[in-house]
Clavaminate synthase-like protein
Amino acid sequence: MAATSLPPFPTDLPVQDLLVVDFRLLKAGDKEQADILWRAATTWGFWYLKNHNVNDFVESMFEMGKEVMALPFKEKMKYWQGNKGGSFGYRHAGATYTDVDGSTDVAEFINISKDDALTYPDVIHKVYPAPVNSHMKEVVRPFIQACLKSSAVLMDVFNEKLQLPIGTLSELHRPEKECISEARCIRVPPALKDTKVALGAHTDFGSISILANKLGGLQVLVSAGNTSEWKYVKPIDGFVICNIGDTLSILSGGVLKSCVHRVVPPPGLQFMHERWSLVYFSRPINDVYLEALSEKSLVIAETVKNTDKRMHEPGMTAAQWFTKRQKQYRTDSEKDIENILAPGPKDTQEQN
Ligand SMILES: O=C(O)CCC(=O)C(=O)O
Ligand SMILES: [Fe+2]
């Protein structure tokens, strides 16, 4: 649905104003834009990006996602991501807990590996539902390539500001190496009566996330002194929302901030609509050991001098850590696929 035919984002809600980075200028080496990006990434860890070409593929990615989610539940589950720490493939709604009382999420995903998209029709990790394959070359791959280009530019700015040797961060994220980077299309149904949280509070596991959405619902946890408050991030037509994830925060010794966020039902009259969002998660190469790059940067070394390593460094590689995190908060960790396929309100077609 075109953004213009959707109800507007309400004007009376707590909103976190994010800085806007002009990607075209940033890519051309504009120092002011690099400073804006640095300020955003070292304070809130979230910012808007404008004048980028990721947008060229957003609508077609949503179309692909809609075709996938319209498939019968059994068909989607043939491509299930599983519950053993993998991510690629289909993830059904309700797969994770959103609070300690046992509420569950209401979001379903299709996750497509960067490696599989770049090598298609060769398969590195996973095969995908038919609509992913039929749009792989014209839509999914170019979308991922645009995200790779954008994140490489952002990464180079962080590299310079962190005073790391040239190319350090890009070497740890080389696109031709295997990793868990992926594109994700998310569907949240029109708000169900008692849904408080559509996707639970989390930080992103990876380095940089690039997000496109049209309806509100994304919230960031903003701390001021001893209190913290959930604030909405307002979708802006043509802009994507970017954020720092945990791995880049760890590698930078905490200089770059990975902010807690969640998705609640769209606010105001937007609640009646299906919510679609699209994310590209840029993650380090699988065997990158997750630790602050203190030996390569005085900026990082100075920052970590007084921090407890155990608080920030998981002591394992990016792939091991991702698998561990991915298994957390699952509602289905003891279940096999037959159990999940048993009749229930999971099929989006049956729900609506
Ligand atoms: O749908 C959104 O707006 C955000 C999704 C998100 O945070 C995630 O998938 O990690
Ligand atoms: Fe997220």
About this structure: The CA atoms of residues 65 and 185 lie 6 Å apart. The pocket of fe (ii) ion (ligand 2) is lined by residues 202, 204, 261 (CB under 6 Å). The mean pLDDT is 92.
